[in-house]
Design a protein that fits this description.
By secondary structure, the protein is mainly β. 8% of the residues lie in helices and 39% in strands. It contains 3 helices and 28 strands. The strands form 7 sheets. The protein has a 9-stranded antiparallel beta sheet with strand order 11-12-13-14-28-24-23-18-21, with no helix packed on it. It has a 6-stranded antiparallel beta sheet with strand order 17-26-25-22-19-20. The longest helix has 17 residues. It is globular. 44% of the residues are buried. The structure holds beta-D-glucopyranose. Beta-D-glucopyranose binds next to β25 and β26.
């Protein structure tokens, strides 16, 4: 007897095989040139694709995540990260889009701190309210250095290990700080970031990532309709220079209460709120409601039009929520669309701002890394849709 497969059946079999093949796609990494730095060094772009076809791209310049391509509720892929298409545009200047931040994420008052009886002076590169401070590592922070990159693949993820040795005295900080940041992009659309560092002299160390998100798609307009939940019932309130006053203040009854979901734009322009005035909107560190060490769900953001959801889990005690108040259209994104006022937001997991200078060590946990100790912390950005 001759075996024949009817055309309809053949079609079904073919689509089953295609579906299986698509499903069984292994994570992969593609490396391309990302342009040349002014000093002649070349940069690369690493594109990590997971088994679902979602992607992130990372350059060795600043460890910057340049693209995050994830599905919406219909399965349509879209880029939810603000960024540029080549290194030249990053070199020309940008407000830390997607970059690794260090040695110290956030502000250090007046660019000064005292450690073990010795005074240190940092470059002051920021002056909110006309009051100078050191922000995000100083003049040439970890966002502007070239990292050594080692790609790796497993059946569950594509990843990159980035390493940078920050020399003793760099940007005014003491000690050789040996830093490894590992990006793992999993088949579940999670970006897992593992930070690791050791030092040979005591130094402040507070590392984070400064991605700006727009879950409706970069360049698609305002982020004010995104719905945010923050598992944080307190805020480290700031002065006019955006330096914490030292107090943790409850968010209850204020525009900062995101313990239940609220649109970012619902209360951002509340008249008469001093904290909103100082930040020009949300630009504040929230104290997470964790009771135990380990990964804690700090935030969830939902974008109603696309259904995209981003959850943030972290081992850190705080998260800076910045709603893009300083974006003014001067940064032209990778789609050649200007990033205007509040068209991207950042959620930076971290220890609290200005901790090296804060008196209350209970309220501001130590950010000092000492020789022999290991700095180790993990944050996960998980993307889905509903
Ligand atoms: C800060 C903002 C700053 C932005 C970009 C955020 O982490 O909180 O004040 O404008 O980074 O530099």
């Amino acid at each position: 007897m001759k075996h024949t497969i009817k055309p309809a059946l053949a079609g079904i079999l073919l689509s089953m095989i295609t579906a299986l093949t698509l499903h069984a796609a292994q994570p992969s990494i593609n490396i391309t040139s990302f342009g040349t730095l002014p000093d002649g060094r070349s940069t690369q772009l690493y594109t990590l694709t997971n088994s679902q076809g979602a992607q992130i791209s990372v350059t060795n310049f600043g460890g910057i995540i340049t693209r995050i391509i994830v599905p919406d509720r219909e399965g349509r892929l879209g880029d939810v990260a603000l960024g540029y298409e080549n290194v030249e545009k990053y070199v020309a200047g940008h407000p830390y889009f997607g970059a690794i931040i260090g040695r110290y994420g956030n502000r250090i008052a007046a660019g000064k701190f005292t450690l073990d009886g010795k005074d240190y002076t940092l470059f002051t590169n920021n002056d909110p309210g006309g009051i100078p401070c050191s922000l995000h590592g100083g003049k040439i922070g970890f966002d502007k250095v070239l990292w050594d990159v080692t790609p790796f693949l497993t059946k569950d993820a594509a990843g990159l290990k980035l390493r940078y040795l920050s020399k003793d005295g760099e940007e005014g900080y003491p000690g050789n700080l040996d830093v490894t940041v590992t990006y793992t992009f999993t088949n579940n659309n999670e970006i897992r970031i593992d930070y690791f560092a050791t030092t040979d002299k005591a130094t402040p160390c507070n590392l984070t990532n400064h991605s700006y998100f727009n879950l409706a798609g970069e360049g698609s307009g305002t982020i004010l309709n995104h719905v945010l939940t923050l598992n944080a019932s307190k805020l480290t309130v700031v002065d006019a220079g955006l330096i914490p006053t030292g107090k943790h203040v409850p968010v209850k009854g204020t525009p900062f209460d995101f313990t239940t979901p609220h649109a970012i734009g619902a209360r951002v322009n509340t008249p008469g709120d001093e904290q909103l005035k100082f930040g020009g909107g949300y630009d504040h560190n929230f104290v997470l409601d964790r009771t135990l060490p380990g990964l804690f769900k700090a935030a969830e953001v939902y974008e109603p039009v696309t259904g995209r959801v981003m959850e943030i889990l972290t081992e850190e005690p705080g998260i800076q929520f910045y709603c893009g108040n300083f974006l003014d259209g001067t940064n032209i994104g990778k789609s050649q669309i200007p990033y205007t006022y509040r068209t991207g937001f950042a959620l930076e997991t971290q220890h609290f701002p200005d901790s090296p200078n804060q008196k209350d060590k209970q309220a501001f946990p130590s950010t000092i890394l000492r020789p022999g100790e290991k700095y180790r912390t993990t944050t996960i950005y998980r993307f889905s849709a509903r």
